[in-house]
Design goal:
2 domains; eight-stranded antiparallel barrel; elongated; OmpW family protein; OMPW; four-stranded antiparallel beta sheet; 1 helix; Porin; 15 strands; OMP/PagP_B-barrel; disordered N terminus; 222 residues
């Protein structure tokens, strides 16, 4: 066998090996794509949510005054859409009530109002992969809180808390029991400081709520 023929044979073998490798890689990619194509991008969770606001705020007209707020537990629904295995957007929906207290405010001390709160929150999440059934994630986004059914009590004759935007940070995890069902634990920090007024606008201030939202519940991936 001459040298040229040996070189031609080796070249043909290398080409054949390369084509086979490309076919194998393409087949593996096709299988991976089919697996992910069968996995719905939609996920829902139902949680029990603890709302724990910071006890901070003020009445502008009373030096040294402070505001405090009641904690609450409420049901909450969230809807998640996965753009990729790692990137997703989550919208949480729920409503709760809160009582408002004045502190260090002289004759105005005590409960001064109550309100219902609707705080839809949208976050962009990064989901970590490679941990099996344990699926941790982090997120950041925006909250818009609406206050309704506001009622003044105690020293106030009326109260108006303004709807407002706030930033949101999030960390949590799902532990998947099978392809569809899992359990979830989630913590969010909302930076929420609405302005408020009362008694026909003669009293004003800022309610520094900045609540923690601590939730646990059930996950379902379609």
């Amino acid at each position: 066998m001459n040298t040229k023929f040996k070189a031609l044979l080796l070249g043909a073998s290398a080409i054949a090996f390369g084509v086979a490798a490309l076919q194998t890689t393409a087949s593996a990619a096709d299988i991976n794509d089919r697996i992910h194509a069968d996995k719905s991008p939609w996920q829902v969770r139902v949680r029990a949510l603890g709302v724990v606001p910071e006890d901070d705020g003020n009445i502008d007209q009373i030096a040294g005054s402070n505001l405090a707020y009641s904690n609450s537990v409420t049901p909450e629904l969230d809807i998640t859409y996965f753009f990729t295995d790692n990137l997703a957007a989550e919208l949480i929906l729920g409503t709760t009530s809160s009582k408002i207290y004045a502190e260090n405010a002289g004759a105005a001390n005590g409960q001064v109002g109550k309100t219902w709160i609707l705080p839809p929150t949208l976050t962009l999440q990064y989901h970590f992969t490679g941990f099996g059934a344990f699926e941790p994630y982090v997120g950041a986004g925006v909250n818009y809180t609406m206050f309704f059914d506001q009622e003044a009590t105690g020293a106030l004759t009326d109260i108006d808390i303004e709807d407002t935007f706030g930033a949101a940070l999030q960390v949590g995890f799902d532990y998947m029991l099978d392809e569809h069902w899992g359990v979830n634990f989630d913590v969010k920090k909302i930076f929420l400081r609405p302005d408020w007024s009362a008694n026909g606008g003669t009293l004003t201030g800022k309610a520094k709520l900045d609540p923690w939202l601590i939730g646990t519940g059930i996950t379902y991936r379609f």
